[in-house]
Amino acid sequence: MGLQSAAAGRIIPRVFYEKRGCICMILIIGGVGAGKREYARSLGFTDADIASGVWDAVRENPQAAPGLTETLCLKAAVICEEVGSGVVPMDLREREARDAMGCLTAELARRARRVVRLVAGIPVELK
Hints:
The protein is α/β, with parallel strands linked by helices. It has a single domain (about 15-125), classed as 3-Layer(aba) Sandwich (Rossmann fold), CATH 3.40.50.300. The chain contains 4 helices and 9 strands. Helix 2 (about 55-60) crosses helix 4 (about 90-110). The chain starts with a strand and ends with a strand.
């Protein structure tokens, strides 16, 4: 059984799999409070389908960020906070976390079937 994507008019498969390097996952990025989780739910995803809290995990241990990729790719939808559009932190650990989050998000975007950025609650399809 699939889920109808209202935004794109496409069917999102209920069973997600990796095939020839293509992950059937949607990456949803945006600022804090932009409506990322609500958007994912509007596509029919449940909390069990969604990986969130990525920024908190990366901030806690920036060096472990690359190791999160495979686990996150197993989820149907991944929510990531936009962290690269603000002031560069003075604290070294915060800069490392921000850089690690940027690299992780870029890798997830490369592997994702769809990438959507939420700006003021409005979804903008990037891929």
